[in-house]
Specification:
Layout lengths: L2 H21 L40 E5 L13 E7 L4 E6 L5 E7 L2 E6 L5 E6 L4 E4 L4 E5 L7 E7 L7 E2 H6 L5 H7 L4 H9 L4
Antiparallel strand pairs: 1-2, 2-9, 3-8, 3-10, 4-7, 4-9, 5-6, 5-8
Helix pairs in contact: 3-4
This protein binds 2-acetamido-2-deoxy-beta-D-glucopyranose (3 copies).
One 2-acetamido-2-deoxy-beta-D-glucopyranose binds next to loops.
Subcellular location: Secreted, Extracellular space, Apoplast
Family: Belongs to the germin family.
Keywords: Apoplast, Glycoprotein, Manganese, Metal-binding, Secreted, Signal
Length: 204
């Protein structure tokens, strides 16, 4: 390959990399921040106190996610970041789900946690985390978390590269919508009564 060709190739590859990076985040904004209605704001606008309720103050009986995204914390609008606090009573799970708009960087603060994701070749990557460990779930891939400890709760914090990462819960998406039973029976290679039994678990 001539050196000119290789330089052109390098340029094309780096241009694609830059485009990828640009597309991998929320749209950029043309102001420092987005104040509601363009109004005057003070430091309290940039402060989120919603996690003050966390342990030892809370003891949920099932898995609980506390979100600090654009909805709960409007100052995040346009900043491409958000957080969630995840509480896992012993034995609880955060069922398989995806975040369409961001990777997730999970930090385990307390307890132990089994985590995992499946890539687009259907390969499972799983790990048991100790306090202080971090695990990254790549953007858009199906992942889960499970506190298999029979005694101790676990507490984790997740950072996202989007102010509104979004969550698609796999069980909820499949069995708590009105997708035709026959479509699901065919998809899962089972019969309609099995699908109806699964759907029953979600009926409120
Ligand atoms: C923004 O405007 C709406 C409608 O005028 C008003 O109800 C709301 O309180 C305003 N929000 C802030 C933060 O000023
Ligand atoms: C549906 O499938 C389940 C599990 O294979 C089986 O136990 C059940 O008898 C089937 N029901 C019908 C109506 O075919
Ligand atoms: C099922 O969907 C409804 C409506 O979106 C929701 O309120 C409910 O929490 C869901 N049930 C479960 C078990 O997730």
């Amino acid at each position: 390959m001539s050196s000119t060709t290789s330089k052109v190739l390098t340029l094309i590859i780096s241009a694609f990399t830059i485009v990828q990076i640009t597309l991998a985040s929320d749209p950029d904004i043309l102001t420092d921040f987005i104040a509601p209605n363009g109004s005057q704001v003070d430091a309290s606008f940039f402060t989120f106190t919603g996690f003050r309720v966390l342990p030892p103050n809370t003891q949920p009986s099932t898995f609980k996610a506390w979100k600090a995204s654009r909805t709960e914390f409007p100052a995040l609008d346009g900043q491409s970041v958000s957080y969630a606090a995840l509480e896992f009573p012993s034995g609880s799970i955060n069922p398989p789900h995806t975040h369409p708009r961001s990777a997730e960087l999970l930090f385990l603060a307390k307890g132990s946690l089994q985590v995992g994701f499946v890539d687009t070749t259907n390969k499972l990557f799983t790990q048991t985390l100790q306090p202080g460990d971090m695990f990254v779930f790549p953007k858009g891939l199906v992942h889960f978390q499970h506190n298999s400890d029979t005694q101790k709760p676990a507490l984790a914090f997740s950072a996202f590269g989007s102010a509104n990462a979004g969550t698609v819960s796999i069980p909820n998406t499949l069995f708590n919508t009105t997708i035709d039973d026959n479509v699901l029976a065919l998809a899962f290679k089972t019969n309609i009564s099995t699908i109806q039994a699964l759907k029953k678990g979600f009926a409120s």
